[in-house]
Amino acid sequence: MLWLQENWIVALVVAIVAIALVWWLFARNRPEMPDEVAPPAAPEKPAKPLEPKKPDIIAAEPARFKKPEPAPTAPPAEPPAPPVAAPGIERMPPADAVPSAQPADNLQLMKGVGPKLVTLLNSLGITRFEQIAAWTEEDIAAIDPQLGTFQGRITRDNWVDQAGYLARKDQAGFEAKYGALGGTL
To answer: Which residues contact 128 (CB under 8 A, 6 or more apart)?
Structure first.
């Protein structure tokens, strides 16, 4: 007790520092409460892989404030030519021209091929597993640049090998090497 009477200033400073430290530790763990408590925001639905996030729709300016657009003077441009099929790949006729003797295969059964890729392959005239199974290195080199953002998927996902199993209707062989088929042949 004698020490406290002689060094009361030091004891006071230590007590103030201890109180400040305890207050700081407990106050920082407690979140500050706003005046109005907002309900928690719903988490944003994640975008599918390879699908860009859609922008928010912005209201258009009313028509009465728009200036009239001038009438076009040039004739409309010709529609772009359809993509050219790679060498060795026969081009399928348009769906409305002549009905095909063989229906198109479900190309989505192959691992790594989704609906967008199926649409792209169909536009190139590729609709059957037999076509893909017959591709050579030259065919792959010609088709791969036409796949755009999917370039490199042919070799990375072994499409030719997968299509070979599916063209032969070898479901057991396919599933042994690539996993569950995910549909019926």
So the answer is: 102, 104, 105, 167
Rounded Cα distance between 33 and 141, Å, is 62
Q: In the prediction, which pLDDT does 98 show?
A: 40
CB-CB contact of 140 with 90 (8 Å):
no
Per the listing, tokens 């290195």 go with 137
Q: How far is Cα 73 from Cα 89, in angstroms, rounded to an integer?
A: 41
Rounded to an integer, what distance in angstroms lies between the CA atom of residue 37 and that of residue 49? 35
Distance, CA of 159 to CA of 166 (rounded, Å): 10
**Residue 95: per-residue pLDDT:** 41
User: Would you give the distance in Å from CA 180 to the centre of its chain?
Assistant: 22
d(C-alpha 30, C-alpha 32), whole Å: 6
